[in-house]
Amino acid sequence: MLSKEELRARLRESLDTIIQDVNRALKGENTDELADVLTRVGQGGKLPKWYEQLRTQHTLPNLDGKTIGSVIEMLLIAVLEKIIFQGLEIPPLRVNPARGVDFPDLDLGIKSPSENYCTSEPFFSAYERLLGSEYDVLVLLTDYQTAKKNPPLRLQIIKFKYLYKTQLADYRLCQIAKKHREWLVTENESWAKKVFRFLAYVNQSDWRAKQLLRLLDCLQDSTSVHRYIQQADKDFQKINKKRIAKDAEPIPRSDIESLQKINSIQPFYLGVIDAADNWVIEMQKDLARFPNSNEWSRLLTSPLDGKIGMSPALQWRYNFSRVFGVNQS
Predict the structure, then answer these.
(1) What angle, 0 to 180 degrees and rounded to 10, lies between the N-to-C axes of helices 171-187 and 189-201?
(2) Rounded to an integer, what distance in angstroms lies between the CA atom of residue 63 and that of residue 255?
(3) How do the pLDDT tens digits run along the chain, 329 residues long?
(4) Which of 97, 110, 140, 303 could be disulfide-bonded to 102 (CB atoms 3.0-4.6 Å)?
């Protein structure tokens, strides 16, 4: 019997065929062939409610985004079992257990964003921003946002990408962490932990945090650090002038003062690290913890090869635009 890793390898090798067959199913062209698997994985052991319309009218009912994700998963698992893995000695494949990974028999997650390139995902640890997921992920970009405007719903997968588990992490934050990891750990492990904690918890919509992230990016270059502090001062004045004109609350003076203070600290990089750490303590308070022993061990050895954007809230907001060659702010 093939291992989960071997099954994922077969999936990767057959991705073009898989997507073609799932798109055929979304047009209602091969639904009869997939019906028995759809019945087995359907709620209550019955064919999904959308199946009959797909089979007879070649369209889907007016479904919300979450339900669309379920449709994609069910059709994908049926294509894998009936076409791609046909003839292999494997047990019936399962979809989306109550908890855990979407396809447990493959240890594979499925994400199906539409043209906004974003999905919301459960939040477990802030360090996922650097470490990624426990599982590989297949990202299937659909045309749902466009298709739903022109009913009846004719859905297609327009792009796809296979991401290894460490790649499901924040691209920019991983770049900064990787750039300085070896130097930081060699110099002082506690400095490294402070920097990694900031990167895990940073809120890039906060003005001071955004400036600190720029400073950390050039942490070992004193000339760039001092130049960015000067630029931050100009940006602070410019933004506050606009805010005051609109009768909006200005950025606190203490924000720019905390950055200017870095110029008087030697070594200069310690001033940046302390300023970043102060932001975490002030803004995140008890929510922000240092990495536990398992996370730290992984941070020291991870390839830090994140490919996506990740914003924290009650849930993660994954942004896959960069994966598909689209730059979004």
Answers:
(1) 170
(2) 46
(3) 899 999 999 999 999 999 999 999 999 999 999 999 999 999 899 999 999 999 999 999 999 988 999 999 999 999 999 999 999 989 999 998 666 799 999 999 999 999 999 999 989 999 999 999 999 999 999 999 999 999 999 999 999 999 999 999 999 999 999 999 999 999 999 999 999 999 999 999 999 999 999 999 999 999 999 999 999 999 999 999 999 999 999 999 999 999 999 999 999 999 999 999 999 999 998 889 999 999 999 999 999 999 999 998 778 999 999 999 987 65
(4) 110
Which token pair is 291? 């990495």
**Domain spans in the chain, listed from the N-terminal domain onward:** 4-167, 172-304
User: Encoding tokens for residue 13?
Assistant: 């090798």
Considering only CA atoms, which of 200, 213, 175, 216 is closest in space to residue 306?
175
Residues 103 and 74: beta-carbon distance below 8 Å: no
Closest CA to 22 of 37, 9, 3: 37
Q: What is the DSSP letter of 295?
A: H
**Cα(130)–Cα(239) distance, integer angstroms:** 31
